[in-house]
Amino acid sequence: MSKKYNVFGIGNALVDIVTEVNDQFLKDHKIEKGFMTLVDEENQTRISNAINMSTSNMQCGGSAANSIIAIAQFGGSSYYSCKVANDELGNFYRKDLKSNGVDSNLDGHDLESGITGKCLVMTTEDASRTMNTFLGITADYSRAEITEGALKDSEYLYIEGYLVTSENGQDAMKHAKKVAEENGIKTALTFSDPSMVKYFKEQMELVVGAGVDLLFCNEEEAMLYTGTDNLLEAREALKKDARRFVITQGENGAMIYDGDTFIDIEPYKVNAIDTNGAGDLFAGAFLYGISNGKSYADAGKLASLASSKVVTQFGPRLEWHQAKKILNHL
User: Fold this and answer.
1) Which of these, 171, 165, 221, 211, lies nearest to 191 by C-alpha position?
2) Are residues 72 and 102 in contact, defined by beta-carbon separation less than 8 angstroms?
3) Which of 93, 145, 189, 279 is least buried, going by the fewest C-beta atoms within 10 A?
4) pLDDT computed for residue 91 by the predictor
5) Under 8 Å CB-to-CB from 58, ≥6 apart: which residues?
6) Which class for 92: exposed (0-12), middle (13-18), buried (19 or more C-beta within 10 A)?
7) How far apart are CA 183 and CA 177, in angstroms?
8) Quick check: 38 and 135 in contact, CB under 8 A?
9) Average of pLDDT values for 88-113?
10) Closest of 9, 70, 69, 8 to residue 285, by C-alpha
11) How many angstroms separate the CA atoms of 216 and 160, rounded?
12) Minimal CA–CA distance to 6: which of 74, 105, 95, 84?
């Protein structure tokens, strides 16, 4: 029996505000370059006031949301379980998600009062991305936000690693994974960011637990998680926790383990100006591919081409016509 959704995603709902800054700006504001840092509202407001918001681009985001929207753009069906507040940004988020063809737990429900989370994505000239995130109401994300009916009607559960930073988030991750496993739904997880593996390794291990069907990570995350210092050792160690996995390697493409063999995915040579969202898009395109009849190798090619396209522009997402063009090209 076919399922209604290819992928059911859970993660932090954040309004992404993408902007350009220089290295001096990051130094002046004591912001650690290349990392995602959680900040309080006061800190984020101070930084927001220092940048030119009028030239910034705003859209509904968060790591898993970007992946889930990508699935819809390629023609798949997806559902996103998240938490936003009944404020201007929360209402913007709900509308933006809907206009991108994604069903969610926000549909037809009154939103709670509070402050919607937002992520300041600062891009420097070397295409590096630095993120300052104020979680707002999504810090309270819990199993209560998980629509079990929609989850059970999905082929894959996709879990965002950023949820590991709070106890209620960890509980939601474990709960969703348990519901998925009990109903024969495949589980996929992304580590999201090196800092999640570096500072929450123990908690991440508890979630990954007896294994996931599919893990997404980059080289740095793979080595941090496995405690190794080279990719060959890391990929062998990952087999213990993931039945299949994808290790993205930036300009060197990606490496996929399909449960049996390793597949090298060639990169597409481009001039990168903003790497924000490349990993999210890779995961979304790959999940679309494998849940719509493509082999791991073909899904990898699609994901590689899609992420090579997104790094040549600002913002973490493609336009709809770009997604269609990529599919036609392949």
Assistant:
1) 221
2) yes
3) 145
4) 93
5) 15, 16, 17, 18, 92
6) middle
7) 10
8) yes
9) 93
10) 70
11) 10
12) 74
Residue 324 CA to residue 287 CA, distance in Å, equals 16
Contacts of 317 (CB under 8 A, 6+ apart): 59, 61, 66, 69, 70, 73, 277, 281, 310
Per-residue pLDDT tens for 162-192?
999 999 999 999 999 999 999 999 999 999 9
Residue 316, pLDDT > 80, answer no
Crossing angle, helix 296-310 and helix 278-290, to 10 degrees? 150
Mean pLDDT of the chain: 93
Structural domains in the chain, sorted by start: 5-329 (3.40.1190.20)
Contact (CB, 8 A) for 124 and 29: no
Where are the strands (E) in 62-211, listed by range? 78-81, 103-104, 118-123, 129-134, 154-160, 186-190
From CA 73, how far away is CA 284, in angstroms rounded? 10
Question: What's the pLDDT tens digit per position in 24-74?
Answer: 999 999 999 988 888 999 998 899 888 877 777 888 999 999 999 999 999
What is the pLDDT at residue 18?
A: 85
**Burial class of 30 by CB neighbour count within 10 A (0 to 12, 13 to 18, 19+):** exposed
CA distances to 7, 118, 278, 293, 328 from 289, rounded to whole Å, are: 11, 30, 16, 7, 13
The enclosing H or E element of 182 equals helix 167-182
* d(C-alpha 214, C-alpha 286), whole Å: 11
**DSSP H helix total and E strand total for the chain:** 13, 14
Spatial contact of 214 and 299, defined as CB atoms under 8 Å apart: no
Say which residues have a Cβ less than 8 Å from residue 97's Cβ, sequence separation at least 6. 60, 65, 69, 80, 104, 106
* pLDDT digit string, tens, across residues 240-269: 999 999 999 988 999 999 999 999 999 888
Average pLDDT over residues 195-204: 94
